[in-house]
Specification:
Layout lengths: L3 E7 L6 H14 L5 E7 L1 H4 L14 H13 L5 H4 L9 E4 L10 H9 L8 H8 L1 H10 L7 E4 L2 H4 L4 H5 L6 E5 L9 E3 L5 H8 L6 E5 L4 E8 L5 E2 L3 E5 L6 H5 L4 E4 L6 H17 L5 E8 L5 E7 L9 H8 L4 H13 L3
Parallel strand pairs: 1-2, 1-3
Antiparallel strand pairs: 4-7, 5-6, 5-7, 8-9, 8-10, 8-12, 10-11, 12-13
Helix pairs in contact: 1-3
């Protein structure tokens, strides 16, 4: 039987390039070599050397740096145009391991749609909506999902017209300042006092042209993964306990920096609500294949949805593989499932 040719799309130009390489490396190493011929692809090569890589985190995380070294030993990564050529080497399916802009936001998905190549994860619209925190919250709120109160800054020019200090006051401090279309907490700041607000907004604008200021939600941080297309499986709830108290870039990608507790130490009422909201969020955005819904369980057991990830990380410290393992799904089987879901007919 002919092996399926799987293009693993990684790298790219976003500020999460290093994280994407780490995800891609883990996928390449874990795909069943008896079933698949893996083709490592750096999405950045498609755009050409003239394109500017977006600014990323200035924190050096050993696990991510090691991924780049390991991939260098694999050999040169191929370009997308090579992998999708009409020759006998055309790939059968694309496994998207990209994070951030130009990969998680519907752009690559749209290109693959035009080329007629099946791909893992959600489609163009779902990807774009989930990546855009402002639009995602509007969709979720319309579906009855409890999300944090926030102030949306839709352009840089709006800042000069807004009295941010007065507008933020009703939210109370601390607040979270976030680029609207960015992941891995890059460009995000927790602001404790109004004196640091302007600086945090300026930092967020380095990564996107829209920014939101969000009320800080106190409670137990959890995440709920889903696996499937029309009738997704809700995975065990993972509790996230960063050693330093804030689940930032370093806490996400440094082994041992965050405790991941399964099942989460929350009441059954809160767990049931978290599972319900995860399904509602997944379906409201039209997600396919997989998603991971990040939430806070407040002291009164109410649940607030923070965001939805359509391409969750798959690094050695990532949360979706932790949840699937707790459900009895080992990593190679997870990859099999995602590829089969990509090949399912609509």
């Amino acid at each position: 039987m002919r092996k399926l040719r799987v293009a693993v799309l990684m790298g790219g130009l976003s500020s999460e390039r290093a994280v994407s390489l780490s995800t891609g490396r883990m996928i390449l190493e874990s795909l069943d070599k008896d079933k698949y011929e893996a083709v490592p692809v750096d999405a950045a090569l498609f755009f050409g050397s003239s394109q500017r890589k977006l600014p990323g985190s200035d924190i050096e995380v050993a696990a991510v740096a090691e991924a780049e070294k390991a991939l260098a030993r694999v050999g040169p990564l191929r370009s997308i145009s090579d992998a999708v050529s009409t020759s006998d080497e055309r790939v059968d399916v694309a496994f998207i391991a990209l994070h951030g802009k130009f990969g998680e936001d519907g752009t690559v998905q749209g290109m693959l749609e035009l080329l007629g190549i099946p791909y893992t994860g959600s489609g163009v619209l779902s990807s774009a909506l989930a990546m855009d925190k402002i639009m995602c919250k509007r969709v979720l709120r319309s579906a009855g999902v409890n999300v944090p109160e926030s102030i949306d800054i839709l352009s840089r020019s709006d800042v000069s017209k807004m009295d941010l200090v007065s507008m933020v006051k009703p939210l109370g401090y601390p607040v979270m300042v976030k680029p609207s279309k960015q992941g891995s907490t890059i460009g995000m700041s927790k602001v404790e006092t109004e004196g640091n607000l302007q600086r945090a907004v300026e930092e967020a604008f380095k990564y996107d042209n829209q920014v939101l200021i969000e009320s800080f939600v106190r409670g137990t941080e959890i995440t709920v993964g889903l696996l499937g297309n029309t009738d997704p499986q809700v995975l065990p709830i993972v509790e996230i306990v960063p050693a330093k108290g804030f689940y930032d870039y370093e806490a996400k990608y440094t082994p041992g920096a965050t405790a991941e507790i399964v099942p989460a130490r929350i009441s059954e009422n809160a767990a049931a609500e978290a599972r319900r909201l995860a399904l509602v969020s997944h379906k409201a955005l039209g997600c396919r294949g997989m998603s991971r819904v990040d939430m806070i369980v407040q002291p009164d057991d109410s649940v607030v949805v923070l965001e939805v990830n359509t391409i969750p990380g798959m690094t050695p410290t990532s949360l979706l593989p932790t949840a699937t393992k707790a459900a009895g799904i080992e990593f190679p089987e997870l990859l099999d499932r995602l590829i089969q879901l990509a090949l399912e007919e609509e």
